[in-house]
């Protein structure tokens, strides 16, 4: 099954991302905007994962402290399939990269790497060819609030193909700070 590991967001951050996407839609000439329930920050794309139970066992051994991230700015890049309009994050990026590396190491040998691109943390809001000409204008019209959020967990997701497009189903949630109080 097509799978990935990611961080999701609380209702407040999803609402702010939805407001940004709504603003972008009013300035965009086309594009496919992600529904709010699809917002996430991918830590590792697994492509086709055959050994789900083995993956869960390995991921369940990751013990790290929770950390803070903050929405930062809009960005744009082209990948092999499409053009992507996204929001990146900042703040405790060392901790975020540590989590991503721990997941990557835990999953070694269980999946075939999809690509060798370096980890570039972002939240995809939309896909579309027109963005390469419009994204700077859209970025200036649609500011990103500097909203902070605490990362306390990560999730193993399964990609579901539906008539409305791709939707993501959580297979398992992995808590950070297990067995410790947040004050330690």
Describe the structure.
This protein is an alpha+beta fold. The protein has a single domain, classed as Cyclic Phosphodiesterase, Chain: A. The protein is built from four helices and nine strands, in the order E-H-E-E-H-E-E-H-E-H-E-E-E. The strands form two sheets. A five-stranded antiparallel beta sheet has the order 2-6-5-4-7, with helices on both faces. A four-stranded antiparallel beta sheet has the order 3-1-8-9, covered by helices on one side. Strand 8 and strand 9 (165-175) form a beta hairpin. The longest helix has 17 residues, at 11-27. The termini are far apart. Mean pLDDT is 88; it is low at 180-184.
The sequence of SSEs as H and E is EHEEHEEHEHEEE
CATH superfamily: Cyclic phosphodiesterase
Structural class: alpha+beta
Helix content: 25-40%
The poorly predicted ranges are: 180-184
Q: With helices defined by DSSP (H or I, 4 residues minimum), what is the helix count?
A: 4
CATH topology group: Cyclic Phosphodiesterase, Chain: A
Task: Supply the CATH class.
Answer: Alpha Beta
Shape: globular
C-alpha end-to-end distance: 38 Å
* CATH architecture grouping: Alpha-Beta Complex
Main sheet: strands, sense, barrel: 5 strands, antiparallel
Total number of beta strands: 9
**From the alpha-carbon coordinates, what is the Rg to the nearest angstrom?**
17 Å
Strand content: 35-45%
Mean pLDDT: 88
Widest sheet, order of strands? 2-6-5-4-7
Number of domains: 1
Q: What does this entry show, briefly?
A:
By secondary structure, this protein is of the alpha+beta class. It has helices at residues 11-27, 52-59, 93-106, 131-141; strands at 2-7, 32-33, 41-48, 67-78, 83-91, 122-127, 148-151, 153-162, 165-175.
């Amino acid at each position: 099954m097509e799978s990935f590991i990611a961080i999701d967001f609380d209702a407040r951050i999803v609402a702010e991302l939805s407001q940004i996407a709504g603003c972008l839609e009013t300035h965009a000439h086309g594009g496919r905007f992600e529904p709010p329930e699809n917002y996430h920050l991918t830590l590792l794309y697994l492509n086709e994962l055959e050994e789900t139970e083995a993956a869960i066992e390995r991921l369940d051994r990751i013990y790290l402290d929770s950390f803070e991230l903050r929405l930062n700015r809009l960005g744009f890049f082209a990948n092999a399939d499409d053009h992507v309009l996204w929001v990146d994050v900042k703040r405790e990026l060392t901790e975020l990269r540590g989590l991503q590396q721990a997941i990557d190491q835990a999953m070694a040998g269980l999946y075939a790497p999809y690509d060798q691109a370096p980890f570039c943390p972002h939240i995809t809001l939309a896909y579309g060819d027109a963005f390469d000409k419009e994204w700077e204008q859209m970025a200036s019209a649609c500011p990103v609030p500097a909203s902070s959020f605490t990362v306390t967990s990560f999730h193993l997701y399964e990609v579901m193909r539906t008539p409305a497009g791709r939707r993501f189903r959580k297979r398992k949630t992995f808590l950070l700070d297990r067995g410790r109080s947040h004050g330690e």
